[in-house]
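Recap for those who missed Tuesday's class. We walked through two folding examples back to back. For each one, the amino acid string is listed first and its predicted structure tokens come directly after. Nothing is annotated here on purpose, so try labeling regions yourself before you check the end of the notes.
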Amino acid sequence: SSSSSSSSASVVYMVADSHSMAPGWQRLKITAADSNSNSNSSSSVLIIPKLVTGLKCWHLRPSCSFYPKRNFENVLESIPDKARVIFGFGEIDCREGILVAVAQNKYKDLAEGISVNVEVYIEALEEVVMAKNITAYVHPIVPVLDPTRETVKAFNKQLKRRVEASKFLTFLDFFDALLTEDGKDFNPKYALDGTHMSPSYVHLLEEALNKVW
């Protein structure tokens, strides 16, 4: 849209499940190289949350018509072309999708289940980038829940590797900072309600975006 060029520089959209809310409406200080003056310039960037309730990566496969996918498509229509967008999905897959499918022998093991779901996710995001000419960042899956944390770690590992191999996507690489120093547990300083992260984690998001903006 013609209005996107003036507004997109000062906002970044967070398209995600309920984890879109913690960073929503926070302001980031982004320092970027200014090509006109050969120096760095700082700007205040607002995170606009775009909630897609209940969406799994698995819902993004072409054959799926489940309503969260329709919601995803509607949310994307509300975002201007050429915008900067953070995508944050996969936590629900780790919580209830992949493990159930493995138990039902739909995949030979967890690694295969993760691989299939990561591929669905990446292909869907790459299509969005090409269709809307957006700059797309991929948020790590959050490791809040104790029972799914090992699945989340494994999913993030595959997701990071696959995003880094993509010409269209950029991984926001701060997952390790969400864990305790020994890498076992969720870092309690980012805890909120036992399910979601506190907005206090946003400085990690800011640091990661500054590296790739």
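Example two. Treat it independently of the first, because the proteins are unrelated.
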Amino acid sequence: PPATTSKKFLIGGNWKCNGTMESTEALVGILNTADIPDFCEVVVAPIALHIPYVVANLTSGVTVSAQNCGANAKMGAFTGEICASQLVDFGLTWCITGHSERREMFGETDELVATKTKIAVDAGLSVMACVGEKLDARKDGSLWDVITAQLAALGAQLSEEDWAKVAIAYEPVWAIGTGEVATPEQAQEVHAFIRGWLSTNVSPAVAAATRIQYGGSVKGSNAGTLAACADVDGFLVGGSSLKEDFLNIIKAAVPPS
């Protein structure tokens, strides 16, 4: 039999700036029918306003994440922000950092994303830290430089021990919400590159233990072939996490190698 491992296939559902109270209640109802295998961890990220309702009403073993956290390590005069320690105080265990929409629309730099990630880990949160390239970098071959810079910023702030709380979500930005999907070969190539970077720049043990999620137009119809890739240890799902199809993505999960 395979060796038992604590490494679970990690499926994140990023609800982005979507949902009314009515639609969120309906989505929680769908999630409460989910059958989550023992080797799989499912985490959903509603808008901040809806987090208390979702936490109080999920019954199927799905956990709840914030979509972001402040760059302020402590509470105080930071209007509009929610800091990591407040997420922990509320009872959350996860947050997302560095989503491509935060980088693109809100000017979050590699360094800021790394700072937020370190603050979140120090506060006790687990983090899905996002990396990935835009279409021009994919076309001109500079994607490796882009992803290396994003990882290096994280590596400069995180200790080797910190990485136990971090999953890396690879988002080919050109495949988010566009219907374009990286081929399984493209996804595996980048995931293997990320794992290689971790092995060389952090440690082989961290590289083996870190979960690398694929995030780019994942749906039930393509989740199985993506999950079969050797270095795909989960997904970060956008649009499909708002639909019943999310249950099909959960069914496609496989035990990470």
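Answers for example two:
The mean pLDDT is 95.
The chain is about 40% helix and 15% strand.
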